[in-house]
């Protein structure tokens, strides 16, 4: 299987929809697309990983490197990850749709790195979320 990355935009957020397998062979595709977005001046990035069916350590490495890159640019990174579920549905058939991306969620959790990421269930909630530092600061006073 291959990795497919499609561009999108929601307001000031660049959105990369990722589907397929993130492994040693395919992960450089995502790395390049992230670097291209940053080179184009995009600093607020959403990675929609809900269509990813497999992720190995190479894929996790790209996610961690993306976090580092975005932070170095004073940008924001948000991941779309469905909640962890079994890869096989109740009927015994392979999972589809939002259940696919749950694999990445489980991998990040198992490696103890999920806490490093700002995770949301869908793009709409990711782009609407207020950053923690803005919530704490409250409204600006005159």
Global outline: globular
Distance between the termini: 56 Å
Count, helices: 5
Nearest-integer average pLDDT: 84
> Main beta sheet: strand number and arrangement?
5 strands, mixed
Rounded to an integer in angstroms, the radius of gyration calculated over CA atoms is: 15 Å
| Assembly status | single chain
Text of the CATH class? Alpha Beta
CATH architecture: 2-Layer Sandwich
List low-pLDDT spans.
85-98, 133-142
Number of strands: 5
- Give the SSE order as H and E letters: EEHEHEHEHH
In spatial order, strands of the major sheet run 1-2-3-4-5
Name of the CATH superfamily: STAS domain
Approximate strand percentage: 25-35%
Which fold name fills CATH's third level, the topology?
A: Transcription Regulator spoIIAA
Outline of the structure:
The chain has helices at residues 27-39, 57-72, 102-111, 123-128, 132-137, and strands at 3-10, 13-22, 44-55, 76-80, 118-120. The chain has 142 residues and is of the alpha/beta class.
Q: What would you note in describing this structure?
A:
The chain has 142 residues and is an alpha/beta fold. It has a single domain (3-137), classed as STAS domain (Transcription Regulator spoIIAA), CATH 3.30.750.24. Helix content is 36%, strand content 27%. It contains 5 helices and 5 strands; from the N terminus they run E-E-H-E-H-E-H-E-H-H. The chain has helices spanning 27-39, 57-72, 102-111, 123-128, 132-137; strands spanning 3-10, 13-22, 44-55, 76-80, 118-120. It has a 5-stranded mixed beta sheet, with helices on both faces. Helix 1 runs parallel beside helix 2. The N and C termini lie far apart (56 Å). 30% of the residues are buried.
